[in-house]
Amino acid sequence: MDSAAFEIDNTPPTFKVQPAQFANGRTTITFDVTDDHSPIQRVECSQDGLRWRAAFPVDGMADSRTEHYQITLDGELGPRGLSIRATDAMNNVATTQIDPPRGR
């Protein structure tokens, strides 16, 4: 039997995170999410590990293999920092952790 060719993608997205910036009472975190095989489907963030909220790319729609994000939070990062979770179109998931600056 013959079947149509298909691609297997078991590779999760990767992150490239810039250092967090604190100014005017707000923290801004800028990062890129890239996947070698599938478009980025969803990115979420959590400050406590329990409640996840959607994050949207700067261009407004997650539909490419590379997406640029900028998240702005009121106040400084708490002691748990910020967790970021990215899912590609093949449901591969990756997470990263942004820790608060030392000495704060």
Can you put this structure into words, describing what you see?
- It contains no helices and eight strands.
- With 104 residues, it is mostly beta strands.
- It has one domain (14-98): Immunoglobulin-like, CATH 2.60.40.650.
The CATH topology is what? Immunoglobulin-like
| CATH second-level architecture | Sandwich
- In the residues, how many domains can be counted? 1
Biggest sheet features: 4 strands, antiparallel
Q: Report low-confidence residues grouped into runs of 5 or more.
A: none
> What is the straight-line distance between the termini?
64 Å
* Secondary-structure content class: mainly beta
- CA-based gyration radius: 16 Å
Anisotropy-based shape: elongated
Report the mean per-residue pLDDT as an integer: 92
The DSSP helix count reads 0
Helicity level, as a percent range?
under 10%
Identify the notable features of this structure and list them briefly.
104 residues; Immunoglobulin-like; mainly beta
